Fold this sequence. Notes:
Radius of gyration of chain A: 18 Å
Oligomer: homotetramer
Helix content of chain A: over 70%
Number of helices of chain A: 10
Number of strands of chain A: 0
Order of helices and strands of chain A: HHHHHHHHHH
Distance between the termini of chain A: 30 Å
Largest sheet of chain A: none
Structural class of chain A: mainly alpha
Amino acid sequence: MATLRTGRMEAFSDGVFAVAITLLVLEISVPDGSEDDLLAAVLEQWPSYLAYVVSFATVGAVWLGHAAVTHYLDHADAVLLRLNLLLLCVVSFLPFPTRLIAETLEHEDAGKVATTFYGLALLAATGLLAALWRYAVHEQLVRPDAGDDEVAVLSRKLTPGLAFYVVMIGLGLFLPVAAVLGYLAIAVFYLVPLRSLRRT
Amino acid sequence: MATLRTGRMEAFSDGVFAVAITLLVLEISVPDGSEDDLLAAVLEQWPSYLAYVVSFATVGAVWLGHAAVTHYLDHADAVLLRLNLLLLCVVSFLPFPTRLIAETLEHEDAGKVATTFYGLALLAATGLLAALWRYAVHEQLVRPDAGDDEVAVLSRKLTPGLAFYVVMIGLGLFLPVAAVLGYLAIAVFYLVPLRSLRRT
Amino acid sequence: MATLRTGRMEAFSDGVFAVAITLLVLEISVPDGSEDDLLAAVLEQWPSYLAYVVSFATVGAVWLGHAAVTHYLDHADAVLLRLNLLLLCVVSFLPFPTRLIAETLEHEDAGKVATTFYGLALLAATGLLAALWRYAVHEQLVRPDAGDDEVAVLSRKLTPGLAFYVVMIGLGLFLPVAAVLGYLAIAVFYLVPLRSLRRT
Amino acid sequence: MATLRTGRMEAFSDGVFAVAITLLVLEISVPDGSEDDLLAAVLEQWPSYLAYVVSFATVGAVWLGHAAVTHYLDHADAVLLRLNLLLLCVVSFLPFPTRLIAETLEHEDAGKVATTFYGLALLAATGLLAALWRYAVHEQLVRPDAGDDEVAVLSRKLTPGLAFYVVMIGLGLFLPVAAVLGYLAIAVFYLVPLRSLRRT
């Protein structure tokens, strides 16, 4: 039963990740009446592109981490399935704060609110991924043949980003654009170390 | 053939569940011109967040129940495939009443209409899931190695929520917000007992 | 290689069917300012619900037929993969004519145009599914162990609906609502015989 | 681990391709108030249909190429997974330039900007697919049993389209509609040779 359960959980999760990451593009548009100077209108959407890239990179990193976590799973229990649903709930919520960033990043006050809100959502997504893994390790749901060092490496990779998010959320109260670039840096940071992880 | 059939049915169902649950976020937005006080505008969307959480929890619970049902399936027959399509039809309809809740919950009369409509849709989704399981049991589509007690436990878990929905739909005619919170409680109730189920 | 190819083709097709069938709900909405009489506004959307049900039933029937076709496939060739892409192209186009029906069915002239356009799209989807199957049979892509009678039954099931669509498209030029109900009847007809098919 | 990794990568990629290709239809609509002459309004949307077909054919061709690449993959490494995420990032971005084409192709200046932007996005998608394959070959991630000639054929198929895109992007600065037709021709060109490839 455990194997099947993990199979359905992976298939459903892949579906939610794929839809959420693809819906991000719906937030990008040029205003009506941009035909007269479309080049300027397209270039003016830079906050949309930035928000798209940051959210895509973050969801991509969380998906990659999720694939690593489920790779080491021997089986799932009921709490893990619910933690996973909670993670998916936050991931599929991300298009909303992404759109707020796209719409308000250039506005002084609104940009700060949107950046904080966005940072909290990103923190929740990566925090729940880390919680999923820690729960699996704690409840011994991890495959017996997984080496202790592999488990420790994955634990180390999934945690420190959380502190960076807290710092960036604080920074966003003063410098929203810098904070969004910081979120991008964290996502890239998540994407990079998983590479050396996988080579071991 | 039966195995393949179940495989395609699961893959297609997972896809529909994943898309429906992820489309829910499209219903959340702040009005144009919210830049001046984005914090207030974001907080004012609480009915959207509540509707998002209730629908996400319900679709998640139905998906979890669906995964349990198909786990016990030995093979599908033609009626089961059509019942499943009917269930998916209701599940993928849910974003519409969810949006009605998000838009009208604070309005006195409209909130009652939206809550009733929403409750009927949730009742239809969970009722069809229970019907799917009862049909499978009745037609002996369940795997021979599934224990009678396991079958009985799943039957008991999938049924009583229906009566609660009827009660909550009645309550919604007077107290819409309380009814929506009741729908959330039912979804959580669905999510919780499946856990003890799966541990047996 | 053939097996893998079929696996990817099925997974991608299931994804497109699942997204297309779930996007149909986005066409349903009540006009702004419906709060004052939401019940009337919800009931007035009956063309949206009808269009949703007809499109859902048709895409569901095409998916069921597609699952039957790929079940009998031994392997895919390059032409089949392209025919399949063409079928998916039409299926994922369906939300557009569905929305036209939802918006204009009650309007005298526009309803006739929308119904004709919709019928042609439904005819193209079911016609391409029949073509996919006939091509597979003709090119001997069908599994050797599939009985001749099974192949003949599936051929007979996938074809006659096409003539009914032509009749209904003609009818739609005079009685749009009757034609849409006819489209629903054809989809139900597709859904029903597949059941006896599968029992053999 | 390699096998699992490839399985998740394929499932997630299929999901993103399927959602991106199906979201394209959301860009098609008739203006409000088209009921009086719906036939004319539907016919006037030809740039939308053209953009839909070109983007569908291109994403379909990239998906087909992606299925061929992963078919030959023995396992994935971390760089390949990130290259794949980058490819998916571009593919799921395509609905935005597709909508720009649909909205502005008939406008003289805006059409040129939109066509150039669209061509760059198509070039990026097909270029990243070619890069994915070349990286896999270079890093010896290809299955040992894949024949050298098969590898060479796939390399030759995935590359020359890039030069055509550069030519068409140049042409689009003067004749936008001709360039879009050229993009369609390139997509068809990608779709055709893969057929003879697969027959070997």
